[in-house]
Design goal:
CATH architecture: Alpha-Beta Barrel
Shape: globular
Strand order of the largest sheet: 1-8-7-6-5-4-3-2
CATH topology: TIM Barrel
Strand content: 15-25%
CATH class: Alpha Beta
Number of strands: 8
Number of domains: 1
Structural class: alpha/beta
Radius of gyration: 16 Å
Number of helices: 7
Order of helices and strands: EHEHEHEHEEHEHEH
CATH superfamily: Aldolase class I
Length: 230
Amino acid sequence: MAEYVIAPSILSADFAKLGEECDKVLAAGANFIHFDVMDNHYVPNLTIGPLVCKALREHGITAPIDVHLMVSPVDRIVGDFAKAGATYITFHPEASEHIDRTLQLIQAEGCKAGLVFNPATPLSYLDHVIDRIDMILLMSVNPGFGGQSFIPSALNKLKQTQAIIKASGREIRLEIDGGVKVDNIAEIAAAGADTFVSGSGIFSKGQESDPNRYDSIIRQMREELAKAGR
């Protein structure tokens, strides 16, 4: 079973100090850097593009960069993020005209590929492409905004997804995104997640004066994950 991965979402970071913010969370024990890419079309917000990914690589970030595309259409931007240094690229099946083709495109660009499921999106999209999947990302909020509360029904969906992964016999990361915090991460892990995206749960506002805040938050998350076992 995959080791636990903590992936801070830079959507909640201080964009004026983005390289420094990424350095700090990685030094504190985070594993991935998570990109929430929104296009003001598929979701009602506009965030960051491949130039930011490229800038972080040039800054010196060597950790995996996990790019979640909330854009439509998808295919046009895949190559840009691959060239900018993305490690994983995940997308919403509803945003692709040809899901299998998009997965092939991502992998042909040298990245790991995955599908993202909104709270009400059925897992049946996996039926004919599970052999192409490196990551499954379940949204535990509706996409488009940071700082939302965890939707409890995601726990049952995690269990269902874990069963699908186990039946496939493949090594597929099971990622959760939305409302993940210290006080619920153990329960989420127990339901099957191994990769945890957290934005406001890590880049909490109002604590900027504490130089050790990331060390403290990520340590607490690790302590909670230890309770879930692995």
